[in-house]
Design a protein that fits this description.
Blueprint (H helix, E strand, L loop, with lengths): L1 H10 L3 H15 L1 H18 L2 H25 L21 H16 L5 H24 L5 H24 L14
Helix pairs in contact: 2-6, 4-5, 4-7, 5-6, 5-7, 6-7
Length: 184
């Protein structure tokens, strides 16, 4: 499956697809973009008093990043061949740290937030799952990871995200977040 998908992407790359994938990678690794995203996230947390989801995201992000680094050392899987890759990175490939992080954050938000309606929950789930999927597809499209690296990252991140979300949703040790992302 891994070789087939990577070969398929390498044979069907387009200029707009490559541009989108490179832009996603640049945004996700840019210090300036991460700083702006962090300021916006902190602002949202303070304005909405969304302390539980913020704690869940922080815990999920930290633990999943550490777990991915440890598992990369354990598996020590080689990245895809250079001739099929548009971006060349060093280090082990399994699991994808980017896929792990995005899945961890998405799962933590979905579980920790008290949604005002099933419709809002569905919308939130759709946006977060879609964003997570786009990141993973871009990683395979660019030849940075095998598809199974991404799948392993998603599974790992989702597990830590759900765990952190459940912990922060019901934990009495965090300041309550009345209406976290539900609106006034």
């Amino acid at each position: 499956m891994d070789e087939y998908l990577l070969q398929f992407f390498s044979e069907h790359r387009t200029s707009w697809g490559t541009g989108l994938a490179r832009t996603m990678m640049d945004v996700g690794t840019s210090t300036a973009a991460l700083a702006v995203g962090s300021v916006l996230a902190v602002t949202l947390v303070v304005v909405r008093r969304a302390y539980r989801p913020a704690a869940a995201v922080t815990i999920a992000l930290l633990i999943s990043t550490i777990a991915a680094a440890v598992l990369k050392e354990v598996f020590d899987r080689a990245r895809p061949p250079a001739e099929l890759a548009l971006v060349h990175l060093s280090g082990a490939a399994m699991p994808s740290t980017h896929a792990t992080r995005t899945a961890a954050v998405a799962a933590a938000v979905l579980v920790a937030v008290t949604w005002s309606s099933p419709r809002n929950r569905l919308y939130g789930c759709s946006v977060l799952a879609g964003g997570t999927a786009v990141v993973g597809v871009c990683l395979v499209y660019l030849g940075v990871h095998w598809a199974t690296d991404v799948l392993a990252g998603w599974a790992l991140g989702a597990a830590f995200g759900v765990g952190a979300g459940l912990l922060c949703r019901s934990g009495p040790w965090i300041v309550p977040s009345p209406g976290a992302l539900d609106g006034p």
